Amino acid sequence: MSSVLSVDGVTKTFGGLVAVDSLSLTVEPGEALGILGPNGAGKTALINMVSGFYRPTAGTIRLFDREITDLSLHQIGRLGIARTFQNIRLFRRMTVLENVMTANPRYTRKPLRAFFGFGGRRHDIDEAMALVEFMGLADRADRIAGSLPYGDARRLEMARALATGPRLLLLDEPGAGMNEEETERLIADIHKCRERLAAIVLIEHDMTMIRKIADRVVAMNYGRKMAEGRPTEVLSHPEVKRAYLGTTEGELV
Ligand SMILES: Nc1ncnc2c1ncn2[C@@H]1O[C@H](COP(=O)(O)OP(=O)(O)OP(=O)(O)O)[C@@H](O)[C@H]1O
Ligand SMILES: [Mg+2]
Q1: Which of 94, 168, 181, 252 is packed most tightly, with the most Cβ within 10 A?
Q2: CA–CA distance from 132 to each of 31, 97, 181 (Å)?
Q3: Which ligand is located closest to the Cα atom of residue 54?
Q4: Which domains does the chain have, with CATH numbers?
Q5: pLDDT for residue 111
Q6: For the chain, which residues score pLDDT lower than 50?
Q7: End-to-end CA distance of the chain
Q8: Residues lining ligand 1, CB < 6 A?
Q9: How far apart are CA 142 and CA 70, in angstroms?
Q10: Distance from the alpha carbon of residue 98 to the mean position of ligand 2, in angstroms
Q11: Which residue, by CA, sits nearest to atom 6 of ligand 1?
């Protein structure tokens, strides 16, 4: 069976700065791939390329057997890649339900409907509501997104990503800024989302999340892969420890 995602020798430069440096990795069917690495390692730049926000300077990217390297953001979205952002992106003045409805590509293809308000077909509303419920936000469906607490905003962003019907979901530090209790709930939410996806890529600094979600981990530094393997192997890798802790002593927690 072909990989869900294949990144092959991908490089991204900004002027003289090499953000991602001939990186190769795959994500296999059913897998949750964790990506970690210190600030500036190139993690976000990598998923910006996979999701079509940046065009690679070199290398190829495939989704299943289809090359997507030079496709647009919207083409890549239609082929089944969705993502969330390091800094949550929502329509802050719309309600929770409206946020999910507008994420559905059927809406963006029918701008007139958006123009005349959200009196869309019952089916579209039901579908969006089912996702709102799936993410545990049913009692907040009519709330303005900008007023949601952080954890709920993250869940809403994930519901918006799922509304595009993706096969691959890319999560960029979803646990950032969460306390232990919120993190536990987020972990459960991510596991639940996996039922609907062929695979998931999780960028995280939170090692608990990496341990509890990732089947395999790629550690990056300076745009390159510095280690790859099972979470326990990668988290005890001397280079990874040095990059995070400045020393090979101690444990990454
Ligand atoms: N649009 C851009 N223009 C110029 N430089 C960029 C751009 N995007 C990223 N970079 C640079 O590329 C490098 C990698 O950035 P990236 O955001 O991918 O890091 P990261 O691993 O996601 O870090 P963090 O953990 O802090 O989110 C950094 O040096 C960053 O400043
Ligand atoms: Mg980042």
Answers
A1: 168
A2: 25, 7, 21
A3: 1
A4: 1-80+166-253 (3.40.50.300), 91-162 (no CATH)
A5: 56
A6: none
A7: 35
A8: 14, 17, 19, 37, 39-45, 86
A9: 39
A10: 28
A11: 14
